[in-house]
Amino acid sequence: MIRDSADAVVVGGGVVGCSIAYHLARRGAKVVLVERDTLGSQSTGRCAGGVRRQFSSAANVVMQQLSVQLLAGLEAETGVDPEFRHIGYLFVLTSDSQVADFRGMLPMWHETGVTDARWLEPREVRELAPLVQGDDILGGTFCPSDGIASPHAVTLAYSGAARKLGVRLLEGVEVEGIGHDGARVHSVRTTAGEISTSAVFNCAGAWASRIGAMAGIDVPVEPYPRNIFVTDAMPEVSRRHPMTIDFATSFYFHPEGDGLLFGMGMRDEKPSYSTDVDWGVLDAMAEVIDRRAPRLGTAGIQTAWAGLYEMTPDHQPILGPVDGLAGFWCACGFSGHGFQQAPAVGYLLAQWFSGEQPQIPLDIFAHRRFATGKVEPETNVV
Fold it and tell me: Which domains does the chain have, with CATH numbers?
């Protein structure tokens, strides 16, 4: 049994936890990361790998600008190529309200530095994304410098670099309790022993509410299963085909290996921790696929898996220290955007923890917003 001490204990070894552990250690903190399974094995390893900046919230756009910058320098910093492919992100729009909303976001994107985001007319949508069909398409937005990266590679980059800086990465170890005196955190109890610490980072993803409960903190995060499918080889489809999202339905697809990866959120989805593939989702998607990308519907399925979205009521992450319990920090509730936000989140929270002002204001993401009602929901959620 271990009996250790640390400046900070990171709970959860997904890409967010690994990024935070690395950035904390880079600033001189003694860090222990606790993961009940293996690093990157949960939501991180089961996501679609998208990296975009076309959000409705300016705070998310600015944070993603930082993430893209950090991904660009990740190989030089850690020796691991994040495999960031700039195939672009295309939002396909089919209603007047969507057109008004996205046209309204374009000036904000440009003002926050996403200068290559642009409007596409229906003809341009079909030219850019040959798989896309439909007479109902009214236009779209496209950002060519967005794209996809490797969740495995990015997690490996941060975890490997963290280990070299002295971070203890405890895999197969589960957190059993958060020790506190009602005012301040003092320890973390695990299946491998106790760790004395004055700071805990809740990076437990879909299980963040359970970690919060151990500290007496209500963390409003619920798990929602999402299924991902990968087709057999489709050599006729360019590997440069953009990540494409039919915004009305959330149906999306992008090149993966020699096939296509695709998925879609279900309107009647309910919270669950199940990660069994729901093959019935294919039937529910059939009409959308036939209408929007019929050639995809003719391909066989090579593989499939399911992961968990960690959803908050406003689809925004919960970031930073929590009022009422000194030393309890959150980095959870990313609502499907954790992988792409992880580089910036690790960097910014490490700044904050070290006593600096984060270079990007994080007030919008504070846990207290659920009590004060000062929320700014993210609407561009897939």
Answer: 2-48+151-221+314-372 (3.50.50.60), 89-144+222-311 (3.30.9.10)
